[in-house]
Amino acid sequence: xxxxxxxxxxxxxxxxxxxxxxxxxxxxxxxxxxxxxxxxxxxxxxxxxxxxxxxxxxxxxxxxxxxxxxxxxxxxxxxxxxxxxxxxxxxxxxxxxxxxxxxxxxxxxxxxxxxxxxxxxxxxxxxxxxxxxxxxxxxxxxxxxxxxxxxxxxxxxxxxxxxxxxxxxxxxxxxxxxxxxxxxxxxxxxxxxxxxxxxxxxxxxxxxxxxxxxxxxxxxxxxxxxxxxxxxxxxxxxxxxxxxxxxxxxxxxxxxxxxxxxxxxxxxxxxxxxxxxxxxxxxxxxxxxxxxxxxxxxxxxxxxxxxxxxxxxxxxxxxxxxxxxxxxxxxxxxxxxxxxxxxxxxxxxxxxxxxxxxxxxxxxxxxxxxxxxxxxxxxxxxxxxxxxxxxxxxxxxxxxxxxxxxxxxxxxxxxxxxxxxxxxxxxxxxxxxxxxxxxxxxxxxxxxxxxxxxxxxxxx
Length: 460
Prior knowledge:
- It contains eleven helices and 19 strands.
- The N and C termini lie far apart (76 Å).
- Helix 1 runs antiparallel to helix 10.
- The protein is globular, with a radius of gyration of 26 Å.
- The strands form four sheets. The chain has an eight-stranded antiparallel β-barrel with strand order 12-13-14-15-16-17-18-19. It has a seven-stranded antiparallel beta sheet with strand order 2-1-11-10-9-8-7, sandwiched between helices. A two-stranded antiparallel ribbon has the order 3-6.
- The chain is of the alpha+beta class.
């Protein structure tokens, strides 16, 4: 039986279709397909086409361009999780002889290795990959434009190197590894390196006339890991669910969270956009979206996931330029999040009470700044300022009785309880900061000591 919360309201569906229709009309695209997933399940799709009475659907393939990079990044993270490499390793350790081997794998994933954006002429997206049979042909004579690790500079050639890295470590072609390790486990049977019917044709629309011309479709060869894939709105909704929650058959939730964490500095003037490990991270109207855009001659694509709202949106178009699939996908996610906000999980008490942990809750002071400490599910802790703009954080319980920070300033830092010889709690130590029950408690080991005269008024 279908839950009433699995289907969207008719008013929401109409707003979504209106947004797709607007993208097709104003963007002058032969066709546009949109789809929305909620909590990992596709709940809507719609399309508009220039052909009267006929439109593609969520099972029609489009070329997705640089969305391919996210798949390549997942394969690299799988190598790391299998212990076959470290993200800090220089490329040379696993793929020697490229001439840019000092760049780390993490820098390549985050586009901060300093590499050029494109391969040397001719334009690689409209010419066969056979023109670039070796990595030297992809990189050219001057592959480095910037110091390694200093800035974010988007690089298609960097993801070509990552694809070759995957092949070198796995000993198999990139596309075979992709199929076995991502597409098959996630049930993405309509995602492939070449077009499979039904698929859209790629078109260039004249900027000053309502006429169009077919675009060539080329096999990108070594550049395939940067932009080769064809996919459907339905398959990308499945992939969106993976990017939100992880899937142990492919990549753990912790590793996917690592991909979603900013790993490269934002360019000046782009503080609403940054890059993780194979994922774009953007801020739109106070919402954080993760995913990727894509384009190749004849096609535009975007996948955004609002992890907090559990909503994902996909927009695909078969035009070289015109419709902003990134804006349209963000709008689809916003429409659902605002019209039908996610229901919070019901509050439930913890299954049992640990008196030793309960004793730690309440007010604590770092110097003269007041904080509250709250015990939550799974023996986790939340530290929050009682007033002002203090540094709050959530902490995960560790087997050794300490806690590890999960967000904010204290991410990765250790919170531990320091006890007196008689077992009573003296203070909390958070990354060397001392939190006491009273401001500058003289009974606690406050670094620098506490003045013997104690607190005083003006007349003293």
